[in-house]
Amino acid sequence: MNTVVQEKIIQYKKSHSSDILFLHTDKTVYTNNEQVWFSAYLVNVPAGEMKRHTILSVFLSNNDNRKIAVMVQYKMDKGSSNGALTLPDTIAQGNYTLTAYTDLLGNNGQPLAVFSAPLVVKTLTRQAFTSSVKLLDTVITNGMVRAIVTVNLNDSKPKVFPTVTYSIGNGFLHSAVIKNKELEINIPRKQLTKSCALLATVKYNGEAQYLSIKLPSQYSLYARFFPEGGNLADGLLGTVAWEVTTGTGMPVAVTGILFKDGQAIDTIATDSCGAGVFTLKPDKNSIYTLKVKAGSFLNHDTLFTLPKVSQSDIALHIGNAVANDTLTIDLVCKEKTRLQILVRNNLGAYSLFKVQASAQKNSLRLPLDALPKGIATITVLDDSGRPLAERLLFAHYNKQLITVIQIEKKTYGKKDSVKAKIKITDRFGKPEQSVFSIAAVQDNLITSYSTDITSYIYLNHDLGPLPGCPSGPGISDKEYLENMLLTKGWRRYTWEDFINRTQDSVQYSSPVIAGTVKYHDKPVKAPVQVIAVGNADFGIVTTASDGSFTLQRDQLITRESKKIALMVAGKNSAGYAVEVNNPFVDISRGLAERIEPLGTGTVSNNLSTGQELAGLENMHALQTVTIKGNAASNNFYGRKGEAGANDCGDYVDSPAPYFGLQSILNYPFTPRTRRFKPIPGQIYVKRTDVGYLGSYASYKVEWVTYQGCPIDRNESVLKLDGIYGEQEFYGVNDDPGELQYLSTLFWKPGIQTDARGEAEIQFKTGDIQDTFRIVVQGVTGDDVIYGAANFTVK
Q: Fewer Cβ atoms within 10 A, N terminus or C terminus of the chain?
C-alpha cells in the first residue's frame, strides 16, 4: 500500500500545478476615473520555475453582463508584479470582478494561476437625477417577484420624462416612460434562473444611469447537510454540519426543527455565516427532516431532507481539526478492525499510519511533522485500501507570522505627516525577511468581503469563496475555520478518485502574440521588416516570406499609458498594413464568462445611484462641459488640453507657477491627476532634475516646441497596448493651498524588511477627515504576511 501511495502522489504532483496567484489591491470600492493599485504575488512556485511566468494580465468585468470594462498587462519577474488599472470616467456603477492571471498555460490551454476578487464601482459624477432599484419581494409571491425603479429629478418642472430600458439577464429588452417617479416591474417565476439579475438603464435629458440587482431564484433557500467523515453511519453517534444560503448563494442565519419520522427531536440554528453543527445517532430505518418556518426568505414552512443513513461500520470525529503539530481523532467502530490512516495535502506531502482499532471508541494522536502549514486531508481506509471516511484539517495553525504596524500617533490633522514602522517576526520574535506592498486608504472603502493574502492562500484557494468572517480575517478565527472545514471542505472519498484516476503530466505553454503584414489587403511575397516604436528599445522584427511574425514580451514593454506602434520599415510604407492577434483578449473573455462572480457576503435588495461615499461629499466630479478658450489656442488658459497622455506617452502638467503659463513636458514627478495631452506646435518647459541644494531641487530648464506624436501622423501604423512596467504612486502633493480629497493616501509595492525584520514609511494626509487603514500584505521565504492598523484624520 505504501508503494501505491508513493506512486500516486508522485503522479499527482506531475499532473497538477500548485502555483497560486494573489493580488493585493489598495481597496475594494472605487469611483470612476480612479486607479486600482495592485501587487501580484506567486506562491508555492519553486524558485527555478518562477521564470515561466513572464506576463500578468489583469481585467475588470461587469458581474451582470460579463463584459470586460478595462484590461491591462504588466511584466512579471521573479514571481511578482505591480501596477495600476485606470477606471474610465464612463464606467457604469455596479458590482465587478477583478481577475488576474499569468501567461503560463496548462494542458487545456487555460492559465494555471488565476485570481479573482469582487470590486464595487460607484460614481461621483453629479447628474440631473438619481435613480434606484429595489426588490418588493424577497421570495416568489403569487408566481412572481416585484421590483420597483425610482427616479428623482432635480428639476421640479421637467419638460420631458425619464425613460427606463430593462431586461432580465440577457433576455428581451423592455422600455417604459416614468411619469410618477416610480415603475413597478413584475418578473414571472420562469424567468428567475440561477444568478439572474434585473438590468436597467435610466435616461433623462441626455444622461444615463445604470442599475442592476440580483433576483431570487425559483427556490428561495437552500439547505445542505455535511455528515462528518462523509456519511451518516447507522447506529453511530456523529457530527453533522449544515449550511443555509439564498438562491443567489448568500449565507443566511436561520433556526429549524429537526424531525425523526415526523417527531421533533432537536432545535438547531445557523450563524451569520450560514453554518451550524449538531450531533445525531441515526437509524437506517428512519427518515430525518428539518423544518424551517416561513420568514423573510420563505413564504411558507419548508421541509429539507437529510441524506440517507448508510450502513458504514465506522464514524470519524475530530474535535479540533484546526491543529498545531499533533492531530487527535476519534474513531467509533462497530467491531475490531485493522485500518490505515492517510494524511496528505495537495502539494504531495503525506503520512501513512496503520492502526488496530477496537470496537467502540478509539482515540488516536497523529503527528503532523511531514505536512507543511495549511489544509490537508485525512482519509480512513480499510486494510485493503478502500476508503471508509474522510475530512479536512488545518495543520500547524500555531506557525503564524506576526506583522506589527506601529503608527507614530493615532490622530492626525489635515496635510499632516504620518510615520509608521512595520516589523515582521515569527511567533518566537525572530525577525523575518519579507517583501510586501502597503496601502493607506479610507477605512470604509475596504469592505468586509476583502480577501487578505493569508486567508486566500490557506483557505480560499482550497475551499473556494467563503462567507465573510464577522471578526476579521477568517484565518484568525478558529471557530469560523472549524465550521468552514466541515461545510465548504466537506467531501466524500476523494481518495478513491485520486487513487484510480489516470492523469497526464502538465504540458506547459505560453500565449503567442503573432501578427501578419499585408500589402493592399493581400499577403506579401517576401520578408519585410516591422519596426516596433514605443518600447524601451527600438525593435525591428523580420517577417517570414508570407508576412507572419511573432512578438516577444520585451519587444512590447513600454511605460504606463503608452502605445506600441508597429509599422513597416522603409521610406515607402504606403499600402502596407500590420495586423496582430492578441491571445490574451480571448483568454480574458473566456475567463470573464466562466468565473462565477463572487458575492459581497451580505444579502442586499437595493441599489441606488445616489449613494455617497463618506468623506468625499465635496469631491463630486463635474459633468462633461465645453469651455471655449481664446482664439490663439482654443484651450482653457491657453495651455491645458485633453486629460491623460497621448499614444506616444507624452504629457504635460497644469501651468507651472515658476515658469509663467508654460506647462512642463514629460516631467515624471507630476501626479497623474494633473496630466494633459500636449498640443503640437505649443511651447512647453522641459525640466531635468540634477540634484538638491539643501531642501531645494536643482534642475535645468529649456523651452521646447512640441512636434506632435509621429504615431498619429501615420495612417498605416498599428497601435496596440503595450506590456507595462510598474507605475509610481504620487499621493498628496506639497501644495498646502490645494484641496486634495484622496481616499488612497499611500501605496508602495516592493518594500523589503531589513535584518531586524523592519521597514519604515512616511506619507501625508489629505483633506478627507475620516478613519484610515494601513494594510500590509506580502511574502517571506516560505510563508505570507498580513497586517492592518487604523488612524484618524480630523
A: C
Q: Report d(CA 569, CA 541) in Å as an integer.
A: 10
Q: Per the structure block, which three cell numbers stand in for 568?
A: 513597416
To which H or E segment does residue 617 belong?
Answer: none
CA distance 389 to 313: 10
Q: How far is Cα 734 from Cα 415, in angstroms, rounded to an integer? A: 9
Q: Are 145 and 623 in contact (CB under 8 A)?
A: no
Beta strands 129-135 and 114-122: pairing type?
A: unpaired
Evaluate if residue 762 carries a pLDDT over 70: yes
| 215-219, 626-630, 725-729, range with the lowest pLDDT | 626-630
Ranges assigned E (strand) in 674-757: 683-693, 696-705, 718-721, 723-724, 744-752
- Distance, in Å, from the CA atom of 762 to the CA atom of 405, rounded to the nearest integer, reads 13
| CA neighbor of 515 nearest in space, from 540, 546, 542, 550 | 550
Q: What is the mean pLDDT of the chain?
A: 83
Q: How far apart are CA 390 and CA 786, in angstroms?
A: 31
Would the pLDDT of 637 be above 70? no
> Which grid cell sits at 261?
419520522
Cell of 128: 440631473
What is the DSSP track for 462-481?
A: HH-S-PPPTTSSGGG-HHHH
Q: How far is Cα 390 from Cα 229, in angstroms, rounded to an integer?
A: 5
CA 406 to chain centre: 28
Q: Strand, helix or coil at 196?
A: coil
State residue 485 phi and psi, 5-degree precision. -65, -35
Give start and end residues of each alpha helix (H) in 263-414.
none
- Torsion-angle region of 457 (φ positive above 0: left; ψ -120 to 50: alpha; else: beta): alpha
Quick one: average pLDDT of 33-47?
91
Q: Which tens digits make up the pLDDT trace of 416-437?
A: 999 999 999 999 999 999 999 9
How are beta strands 557-558 and 723-724 bridged, if at all? parallel
The conformation of residue 158, written as its DSSP 8-state character, comes to -
pTM (two decimals): 0.80
List strands edge to edge, sheet with 80-86: 20-25, 35-43, 80-86
Residue 786 in grid coordinates: 498580513
Question: Cβ contacts of residue 665 below 8 Å, gap of 6+?
Answer: 650, 651, 652, 678, 684, 685, 686, 704, 706
At 505, list the grid cell. Answer: 503530466
pLDDT in tens, 66-103: 899 999 999 999 999 999 999 987 788 788 999 999 99
Contact between 242 and 223 (Cβ < 8 Å): yes
Are 430 and 356 within 8 A, CB to CB? no
**Helices (H), ranges, 579-718:** 583-594
Q: Residue 540: is it exposed, middle or buried by C-beta count within 10 angstroms (0-12/13-18/19+)? A: exposed
3-state secondary structure of 29: strand
Sheet holding 326-333, edge to edge: 314-317, 326-333, 360-367
**Coil vs helix vs strand at 594:** helix
